[in-house]
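Question (not urgent): is this output format expected?
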Amino acid sequence: AALAKIGTDGKVCIYSLAATDIVVDVTGYIPAGSLFGTVVPSRLLDTRSGPDYLTIDGSFQGIGRRSAGTTLELTVTGRGDVPNNADAVMLNVTAVSPSAPGFLTVFPCGTAMPLASSGNYGPDDIVGNAALAKIGTDGKVCINTHAASDIVVDVTGYIPAG
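Got this back:
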């Protein structure tokens, strides 16, 4: 994932050292003049169980591996120094040991799931990716997993209400 400043004529440049196909999914933006609130990175979700798999406040920890095709509603506001009136959050979303190839999609709860991935994975991978996510209904973001997987989410910043 990349958070990129928009350049001349509303464009961003993408460079590849070797010939390749490129797919770009836009998952959000920060309006001109907006502030970005930083936080001490905090764990908001860890579906794994055990003494090393803790969240900042004990919520959303050890809740179990997510089944293929399911969507988890994760409360992000009021946790990890994200204010209750934040509009969006910057997250690091990690799939842990998925059962098959697939992807995670992060989107605002209360909206339809978009046709875009927030992170792609293979079987038994541990793959993290940054995601800028608009906050939806009741201060939540939704996370859908294509294949059965454990999921870990850390918050690294937010965009205040404007």
